[in-house]
Specification:
Rossmann fold; globular; 702 residues; alpha+beta
Length: 702
C-alpha cells in the first residue's frame, strides 16, 4: 500500500532524530602515532623492493603500531535505512574518512592491499570491510567526490612505483578541495573498494578478491561487482575502507556482521541478501596476525613480584609486558617467551599496572586492557575482574584504576583478571573472599554475564563469596533482553529486577544519587556520577532497579522516589552452602566522583562485607511437604511432585557437594521426571526454586 505524505514525513523526522542523537564520533582503535615513525615517502622507499608477503607484513606492522595519519582516527558517520516488513528501520555506521593510509598528516601513502591484509587489519581493529551497498552509501555521504584517475593497464600496475605514482595523482587532486573540505572529511572517487560479498565464496575458484565502485562525480561507477582476481592480487586502484563493526540500528547497538547475517535486517547493509560469511577466508599461511591478549590475570606472588598467566596461543611467540605506577604512563616493554611467568622487582604494597601485547613473525599486536596487582607478603582476599571490554570510543580499558585505588585506600591488597580468564579457568573466584566485577557500559552486544560467567558467579555466591558488581546495562541485558536463565540469574543471584532504562525514563538527565534509609550506605549523602566531563564517560542510560528475593534497596537516584540505583544482600543464595553477600550497583563505580566520594562508597561496601551481624534471609525456605521427591535413594530417574500449584516456571538444580551446579532445568509441569542416570554414585544437593520459595533436598544416587 502506498504511504501518505504524512507517513513519509514522519519517517523522515524519525530518521533525522536518530541521526542527530546517535552520539559522539567514533575513533579508530589504534595506538597514538610516534613522531619518530616513518612518513609516507619513507615507507614507499622501504617496501619498494620487498616481496608481496614481506611488503604486506611491513604495512601490517606499521598500521598496528599506530603509524597512520591522525585525521584517519576520527571516523565519520554514515546513515541508511530500509523498509523492513511494515516499517522503516535506520542504521548508522562509522567509516574512516579515506582509504587506509600509512604515515603522517603531511606525508601519507594510500597503500593498495590484498584482501588478506585488509581482513587482518579489519579484524585487529574491530572493523569490517564494506559491501557494495555500503560503498554506494559512503559515496553519497562523501563531501569530497573525486574524479577517478586511471593509469594504462599493464604488468607494472601491481608494483609499488605505480602505487606511488597514483598516490601522488590523488594527492594533487585532493588539494583542490582542501580549503573548503579539510583532511578528515569523507572522500570517495579516488579508489575502487575491496568489498565483502557472497561472490567471495560462490565463485568457481576459491579465494577471490571482490572489488567494486570507483564512482565518477556524476554517480556512475567504473567497476561493477567483480571477482576475477585471486586474493593475492592488488593493483594501484584498490583501496581498503574500514568500517567500525559496532553499528546503531534505530539507536540500539549491534554488530555489522550480525546485521549482514540476519534474515530480518540484512537489507540495511546489503543489496545481495544475507551475507552469511561477511569476511575473507583465512590466509594460506599457518602464521596469522598475533591476537591481542584478552584472557589473562595478574596475581600476587610475593612482596616484590606478581605472577602473570595468559591463555596459551600457539600463534604467539612472545609477550611484551609494560608496567606503570599510575595506569596511564607506561614504560618500555619487558619480553617473555612463556605464557605463565613471574614479574619481579616491584614495590611491596604499591599498585602496579600492567598491559600486554603479543608478538610473532608478523609483528606486535595492539596492547591489551590494563590490569593491576599489589605485591604483598600476605595472600590476597580481593580479586578485581574487568568485564568491560566493549569497544566504545569512551572505553579507555583502564577503569581498574578507579576501583584499585579505592580498594587499596583501605589497605586491601588485590589481584586482577579479565572476565575471559575467569570463564577459561585461569583464575578461580572461590580463592578470594571479595570479587569486584567491572561491567561499565557492557550490554547485550557483548553480554554482561555469559552463561558460563553466570555459573561461576552462582558457585561463588553459593559458597559464601562477597560480590560487588557495577554496570549501567546489566538489568537491561539480563532481564529486559535476557533468556529465562538470564532473568533467573538476575532476579535470584543479583537480587534485582529491572524497572527502567534510565532514571525517570529520561536519558542524559539525572546524574546524582543518594542513600536510602539503610544502614549500609548511611551518611553517603548526595553523590554525582559522570556525564562525560569528569574523567570517565557519559553514563546516560543507568538502569533503574528494584531489590527482590531478599535484595534491599540501598541507593536511589536523587529526588526521584522509587528510582533505585543500588541493591545489597546478605544471606543464603538459592543453592547456598554458606552465607554470601552482594552489592549490585546500576551506576558504574568508576564513574562516581569526586574521588573522595568514590572512596567513601568503597569503604561502605568493604565495611558491609566485613560485617558479621545477623543474616538477612533471601527466599523463604518452605515446608518440605510443598514438594515431594521420590524415589530417594535413586538409581536413574527421580520424580519431583509439586503438591500445591507452585510449579509454574520453577527451576530444578542439582549440585555436587562442593556447590558446583551440574544440572539445571526449568519446568511448568506438576510432576517432572529427572533423568540422573549419567551421574556418578554419591550424595548431591537438589534445589527447587518456585513461586512460594525454595526447597533443598539431599539426594543419594546409587
Amino acid at each position: 500500500m502506498k504511504k501518505t505524505d504524512f507517513q513519509f514525513n514522519i519517517y523522515i523526522i524519525l530518521f533525522l532524530f536518530l541521526y542527530c542523537n546517535i552520539g559522539k564520533a567514533q575513533n579508530l582503535n589504534v595506538p597514538a602515532r610516534n613522531t619518530t615513525d616513518q612518513n609516507g615517502s619513507q615507507i614507499i622507499s622501504s617496501i619498494s623492493n620487498l616481496s608481496l608477503e614481506n611488503r604486506e607484513s611491513y604495512i601490517l606492522a606499521e598500521v598496528l603500531k599506530g603509524n597512520i595519519p591522525d585525521f584517519y582516527r576520527n571516523m565519520v558517520s554514515v546513515t541508511d535505512s530500509a523498509y523492513i516488513i511494515s516499517a522503516y528501520k535506520h542504521i548508522t555506521y562509522y567509516v574512516i574518512p579515506d582509504y587506509l593510509a600509512v604515515g603522517c598528516d603531511t606525508n601519507y601513502f594510500i597503500c593498495p592491499m590484498t584482501p588478506i591484509l585488509g581482513q587482518m587489519i579489519a579484524d585487529s581493529l574491530d572493523c569490517i570491510l564494506p559491501t557494495r551497498k555500503m560503498v554506494d552509501r559512503i559515496w553519497n555521504a562523501s563531501r569530497v567526490k573525486m574524479q577517478p584517475q586511471t593509469i594504462p593497464p599493464g604488468p607494472q600496475m601491481i608494483t609499488v612505483p605505480v602505487f606511488s605514482q597514483h598516490d601522488s595523482i590523488v594527492k594533487v587532486q585532493r588539494q583542490n578541495f582542501i580549503t573548503a573540505n579539510p583532511l578528515g572529511e569523507l572522500v570517495s572517487g579516488n579508489k575502487k573498494d575491496v568489498v565483502i560479498s557472497n561472490l567471495i565464496y560462490t565463485t568457481p575458484y576459491p579465494k577471490r578478491v571482490v572489488i567494486y565502485g570507483w564512482h565518477y562525480p556524476s554517480g556512475t561507477n567504473i567497476q561493477p561487482l567483480y571477482a576475477g582476481h585471486i586474493n593475492t592480487y592488488a593493483d594501484y586502484s584498490h583501496g581498503i575502507r574500514l568500517i567500525q563493526n559496532e553499528v546503531y540500528v534505530d539507536g540500539d547497538t549491534m554488530l555489522a556482521t550480525d546485521v549482514l547475517t540476519s534474515l530480518y535486517l540484512n537489507s540495511l547493509l546489503s543489496d545481495e541478501g544475507v551475507i552469511s560469511m561477511p569476511y575473507y577466508p583465512d590466509t594460506a599461511s599457518s602464521v596469522s596476525i598475533p591476537a591481542v591478549p584478552k584472557s589473562f590475570c595478574v596475581l600476587n606472588q610475593s612482596d616484590t613480584s606478581v605472577r602473570i598467566i595468559i591463555s596459551s596461543d600457539n600463534n604467539i611467540d612472545n609477550y611484551n609486558v609494560y608496567i606503570s605506577s599510575d595506569g596511564i604512563n607506561f614504560g618500555n616493554a619487558q619480553t617473555f617467551a612463556s605464557n605463565d611467568f613471574e614479574y619481579t622487582g616491584l614495590l611491596e604494597n604499591e599498585i602496579t599496572y600492567f598491559k600486554i601485547s603479543s608478538s610473532n613473525s608478523l609483528g606486535n599486536s595492539v596492547p591489551s586492557e590494563v590490569l593491576a596487582a599489589v605485591p604483598s607478603a600476605a595472600p590476597h582476599n580481593v580479586i578485581i575482574v574487568n568485564g568491560f571490554d566493549r569497544a566504545l570510543t569512551s572505553n579507555t580499558f583502564d577503569y581498574i584504576r578507579q576501583h584499585g585505588e579505592a580498594i587499596m585506600n583501605y589497605n586491601y591488597p588485590f589481584s586482577s583478571a579479565t572476565n575471559d580468564a575467569v570463564t577459561e579457568g585461569l583464575i578461580y573466584l572461590n580463592h578470594y573472599a571479595i570479587a569486584d566485577y567491572i561491567l561499565g557500559e557492557e550490554s547485550t552486544i557483548d553480554e554482561t554475564f555469559s552463561t558460563t560467567e553466570q555459573s561461576v558467579i552462582e558457585s561463588y555466591l553459593n559458597n559464601g563469596g562477597y560480590l560487588l558488581v557495577s554496570g549501567s546495562e546489566i538489568g537491561w541485558d539480563l532481564e529486559y533482553y535476557g533468556t529465562p536463565n538470564d532473568k533467573f540469574f538476575y532476579n535470584n543471584y543479583l537480587k534485582a529486577e529491572y524497572v527502567f532504562d534510565a532514571p525517570n525514563n529520561q536519558s542524559s538527565t539525572f546524574y546524582e544519587f543518594q542513600e536510602t534509609n539503610n544502614p549500609v550506605f548511611s551518611g553517603l549523602g548526595n553523590t554525582t556520577f559522570d556525564d562525560g566531563t569528569n574523567g570517565t564517560y557519559d553514563v546516560n542510560y543507568p538502569d533503574v532497579i528494584q531489590g527482590i528475593n531478599g535484595g534491599l534497596n540501598g541507593l536511589q537516584y536523587s529526588n526521584l522516589s522509587n528510582n533505585f540505583a543500588g541493591v545489597y544482600f546478605k544471606g543464603l543464595f538459592p543453592a547456598a552452602i554458606d552465607t554470601g553477600k552482594l552489592v549490585n550497583l546500576a551506576i558504574p563505580f568508576e564513574t562516581v566522583y569526586p574521588e573522595s566520594k568514590r572512596f567513601i562508597l568503597m569503604q561502605q561496601i568493604l565495611d558491609f562485607f566485613a560485617d558479621t551481624s545477623t543474616v538477612i534471609l533471601p527466599l523463604e525456605l518452605v515446608e518440605f511437604n510443598t514438594i515431594k521427591i521420590y524415589p530417594n535413594p535413586v538409581l536413574d530417574k527421580l520424580t519431583i511432585d509439586f503438591v500445591r500449584n507452585s510449579y509454574k516456571n520453577a527451576q530444578v538444580k542439582i549440585l555436587d557437594m562442593s556447590g558446583r551446579a551440574i544440572y539445571s532445568q526449568f519446568t511448568d509441569q506438576q510432576k517432572t521426571l529427572i533423568n540422573i542416570s549419567n551421574l556418578d554414585a554419591g550424595v548431591y544437593l537438589m534445589n527447587v526454586i518456585h513461586q512460594e520459595g525454595y526447597n533443598t533436598f539431599k539426594i543419594i544416587k546409587n
